[in-house]
Every structure is written in structure tokens, then in C-alpha cells.
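EI: anyone free to look at a 188-residue chain?
SC: sure, send it
EI:
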Amino acid sequence: MSIVNTNGLARCHVLQSERLTLQVIQEKDLSTIVDLLSDYETVWMLTYAPWPYTIQEAMCWVNLVNNMCIMGKGCFWGIHDKEDAFIGTVGLSIFPEHEKAELHYWLGKAYWGQGYGTEITHRIMNYAFQSLKLNRLEVNHMTCNIRSQRIIEKCGFKFEGMLRSYVKRFGQFEDVKFYSKLRKEHKI
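SC: here you go
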């Protein structure tokens, strides 16, 4: 299944990695998204997710990202493991006029530390640079999110800078680090 944008270009194809399947987020995934994001530590690491995370929040977000896919401004997937358990999401906010995208991902806490973040990031980089022919991929994380920093660095993104007090999370300002990778730097 894929979403087709208004220009007729296929987006959000089902993608496979060694252990994971990426597929369009569907209504049946909403309750699992809410369950996974009911963990405060998981939500704390996300730059913009609200707390508590409700089914209404999930519905609004899924509608938003699916509309981005339809308009050719994004690709977002649910991440499923070998047993078809929904374990998180990954997506690209695409800026076609600049041939670039911003990478977004999160995993439920039970799936941290198993190499899934690195595996998914490699798969999305291949898709972004090979299939979408993008020139630049960007990603960022709050400085407190050391796990994301390790994934980003392991995948070869270059640190570009830090914006101080860039976001306010639960009453506290947080610094955010920004990274990029160019197609010419990507090896398959």
C-alpha cells in the first residue's frame, strides 16, 4: 500500500529492513501509538509531543502526516517488528524545492537499545537519497536525548550546531543539536 500525492508520484511505499517493516500508519495503529506514548520518558524525548498523549492527539497527528504524504510534503511510516508489533514511527518532512528532508523517529521504550533506531535510520537514508533523490537529510535532538545522539552520529550525520533554549518542554527550555548528511556523503 502506498499513498499517492497530487502529482501522481508514489510516496510512502512499504519498506523493509533486516528486522523491520515500515508501512503507512493506519487507524488500527492509533491505540498502540497512544499506549507507547503513555510512557512519560518516551514523550519527554520528543520535541513536540504533548503529555498526556490522547487518542485525539494521535488521530490529529496521523491525519496530518497522511495529508503531508498526499501532498508530496512527507512520508511517515509505522515501524513493525518481525512479529508485526507496532513499535514506533519514522518519517520525513520533505521540502522538494530544496531537495531536502528532515528525519523524525521515535520508538516505544521497550524497544530502546536493540539497534532498531540505527537500522531504521539507515533504511530511511537509503530511501531518501536513492528513491527520492534528495540532496540533504537533516535531523535534530534535544541535548538530553543521548540515545538519539548516538544513533545520529553512528549513521554518519555531521553536527552543524546547537540552538540554545530552542524548545520549551514541560515548562523547561531545552537546547537542540542539529545535524545533516548529504547524498554525496552517503554510502550504501
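EI: Residues 1-10 have pLDDT under 50 and may be disordered.
SC: 👍
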